[in-house]
Protein 1
Amino acid sequence: MDALVARSLSKMYRGRHRTVPALDNVDMTIAKGRLFAFLGRNGAGKTTFIKISSALLMPTAGSVQLFGVDVVDHAREVREQIAIVPQEGKPFYHLTPREHVEEYLRVRGASAETARTRADEILEGMGMLPYEEIPAMVLSGGLQQRTLVAMVLATEAPFLFLDEPTLGMDPFARRQVWEVIRRAARKGSTVLLTTHYLDEAEQLSEELAVIEGGHVLYQGEAEALKSKVRREVRLQFGYGFTAQELASYGEVYAERNGLTLLTTRNHVEELTRRALERKIAVHIGPVTLEEAFLTLVGRAIEDEDPGALA
Amino acid sequence: MTWKSQANAIFRICYFNGFLALRRSPILLVAIVLTPLSFLFFLYVIAPRSVLPFGIVGGVMFTALFTGNGMMNDCAYFRLERQLQQVFVSSPLRPLSWILGMALSELAWTLPALVLFIIVLGLVVPVGALTLLALVGVILLTWLLSASLGFLISTFFRQLREIWPVGTVVFTSLSVLPPIFYPLAAIPAGFRWAAFVSPSTYASQLADHAVGLPVPTISVVPLLSSIPVEATGMVLLTLLFTLVAMRLARWREP
């Protein structure tokens, strides 16, 4: 059975002068037990999708089913199956991380023993044992975010919605959280996470979707997304070339130390030779998920508004 | 989740949002008791001694009404700023259990102040077991009424900035202007019925009845000064506020 099925899902926000589409006819399926990442720019529609799917927001049209249950008509049944880390949520200021985890589990119906055992596991897994008895008000922003993520992941709910779960965390903490998220998926939870960290999506997700302007541009594996943009190689040039000279070879964008070109393998030899003739430094590497994402979304923006990226 | 689990969840919320918060921030207790105690002090200094029992009962009622102010602030804060309402509602916990847990935790905050005022009342007028029982009943009714109203108002807020002006207007109108700290008899006879526009007047009159303080008749609508009518009025208003709040509550945004 699929864990989540969205069909023709739309959401319009009514502004003072016009209606803004946040989601436009979105179809999406997430298989049970999958670790799924949702990528998109700010305002692309990721959080709207999560809010509708977790019964926190009404759609304008279309439907979402969670484990075969409609989220609009049967919100109560859906809520029994889920747990959510909201975007920019914050913990109670006066409770410690351990109290957050244990009390939240007990409110959800877990026994004191289960709550204690799961709190031990999750706090250790997320490297929070040294802070477990410190009230959240004196914890750093990153540790507060970890507290919120810990209390939600400890639920082991069948479907976990994580809206930017590692926001504000340092690289070490992020990796610890990744491992706990992976563990939740191994235990059988389906995970839908949004993130702006493309490395996080690449490391964590078994499948991902890219959304822009309320439209899903891509759904599939990260590797397939890279090949979809039809560029395999990234060439980074020092100063010397102009963007116009390289434009016919692929996607060009300016960076701090020169130009970066995403191109195909057959151009590499020619371009490196030309760079060396003009004594321009050149670095070669594979296209990253971030570049594939930028290319895909960039093309969508250009299609909609040709002057937007100029 | 079973009803037993829901009840357990309500008490857990009361424990960590009420008792634990109070234990870790005792200043909350001072904040809650300070305003009614100040009113009582002014009455003690400037009013005749016969008004003092009304002021003490007023302190009890003001404190019970304060649960609504706390409810409004906390529910808006947890929904808009912390997004914890979303975390708790996206779970097997029923929305009504969340409201009751929050309301109970607000009551927990006010418990020490309520006990203090009842002790002071006992020093001024005789408070027997029946009187105490009646007073506790009125306090519980007032708490339910005020908490349901506080939650209802919290559902209208779209940003935190709106809370304090609205809260000040609403709860000053409820707890300072109506005859809470002064006897209803102080209002000219022909206008006493107007005080019953405020739901808190029903609460204070019931409390005065419970303690055995003189309650004047209402010339235009004499029924308003009867205990069953006042109690029924409070229950009906509580139900109305709760039902409207449940309907308007932003468990799911439109």
Protein 2
Amino acid sequence: MKYNFLCLNKAYAADVQKGEDEIIVTIGDRRFKVRELTMHENAISFRIKNKNYRMPFARDKKKIYISLEGEYYTLELSSGARYGSEGPGQRKDNVIASSMPGLLVKLPVKIGSKVKPGDTVAIVEAMKMQNELRSPVDGIVKSVNFKEGEQVDAFVSIVEIDESP
Amino acid sequence: MFKKILIANRGEIAIRVARACRELGICPVGIYSSADENSKHLRYMEETYLVGDPPPQSSYLNIQAIIDLAKASNADAIHPGYGFLAENPKFARACEDSGIIFIGPGSKALALVGDKVASRNTVTKVGVPIIPGMQIAKKGYASFKNIAAEVGYPVIVKASMGGGGKGMRIVRTEKELQNSIEAGQREAKSAFGDETVYLEKYIERPRHIEFQVLRDKHGNTVHLFERECSIQRRHQKIVEETPSTALDVDLRQRMGEAAKRVIEASDYTNAGTVEFLLDETHNFYFLEVNARVQVEHPITEMVTGIDLVRQQIMIAAGVEIGFQQDAVEQRGHAIEARIYAEDPENGFLPSPGKILYLDEPNGPGVRIDSGIFQGWDVPPHYDPILSKLIAWAEDRESAINRMSDALSYYVILGIKTNLGYLRRIMLTPKFTAGDYHTHFIDDNEADLRMSDDSIHAAITAASLIAMTGRNGERILRQEDEILRSTTPWHEIGDWEVCRDIHE
């Protein structure tokens, strides 16, 4: 069975197969022989070679969350086709979106505004922190999809810019 | 002593204050916004009242609503916690006018120390050095430009009402000045309801060292030693420790005495913290007075054995501090790590959401001041602090090891947190050596980066977890099966049980 994950902004493909008396997980060109697998509601443990792993985990519809040796991994399940309409993987330069959900507190541009790289096009606030969204490109504002004072979701287009040729 | 105290706050600090109330036989009264109706702090209260809608201005910053609730519930005092209205003189005044004791300094002293300009004038008179800069918070770009030119770049723009780095901007060239002032004003307005900002000389590579002071209404003043708060991201403290590795006996004594002079000169009562910057040649400069119980107060409690919130309540009730300066000792070493709902791998952006799994550590010398529980939806409206982990041990090295261990057993899943990042700080050579300053985070970026050494193990685990179901219903059903078996592999048996995620 094949799974695609997005973790720390990188894509990983994993393939799980049943072996003789172990499970074989192939990630890229690495093969791992998994033995002694046990799984409970919020914990998984297994052995690879001589190393034992015990990890608390949780999951929701799209993500698996794992605590491992003091680090925390969020693995987003993706299947190339479905993933990408939202999420950081497919962000385009001319689409300005916030990477956190929040309140749109300032929108200093309107349709037709000229922007240069580094110009602030929107300010989104969440948990008392303001995040300035700057234009990475030179161009003219083509569309504005929210108003000041509105709530915006993460990775949803707030402003789109027509890049100057 | 008071009979009832209204706690005008939320999260871990509201719980901390409620505990102190209960121990003193005082009834704690809680308030909550409609985003917090299921929040943990309410479980520690004997009475709870809805204060308003989720935005802070309608709820935890709503002076009239809070005063009305205090009156309605017959509270004789209000504890403001930290943040929100803790350092707002209008709120302290409103309490005084309503005959309710504000647990903190009087409104006059609060106004004085909260006005960073007036407080600088006050401390200069008692011989405590300050950083050169604006003496009066001026309006208008021209005066900012002139003073910046006079003290020389880099300069820093700060909020007059501020704290915690909100509204602060470092400015390295005149070109950036105007934008930085405006950005600072916006943040100040949103965080403190007052957009006044000022400007001063920026000191490179300073240490941030603060002294905890208590002063009662009878004029007794003691300091409870320092807290080293130089580990900051975006000017906000994330790790604090005491004692500081930068102070020797003589410097500690001089700074402690200076801190007491600042508090006395301001006619300040209750618990207050005097913040200093220490430069590379061990000159110290007064920064500001934090007129509240601070987020990092537990480390002082751990090394001195003095309960600061209890002291706050007793001082407010007019009780005399029951000990002298020479009776206060620093015993052992304490470190605090602040757990935030934020993503260190993505610019520390806030990460509100549901906590799907929670397992908090414990053990000798481990203290957790926590405001969260499994299943709780962390609301997006407030500060992203979730809890504080405090480790105490006989010496610094043991305290670091204890903290590092506790962090790795602290499991919060479902939202992004800085737990892994905090543990990396504990393992960073500059931190273990005690050789750091406020730019620690930027200067040690390579050491603080998440290593992907274990990524394959995580992906292996995730694949096996994913295998057990591809949508909610299936996951639930299969988990039931798995729960009945210690070897799910055999239980799952046929591969066709779960289909490929691609389908």
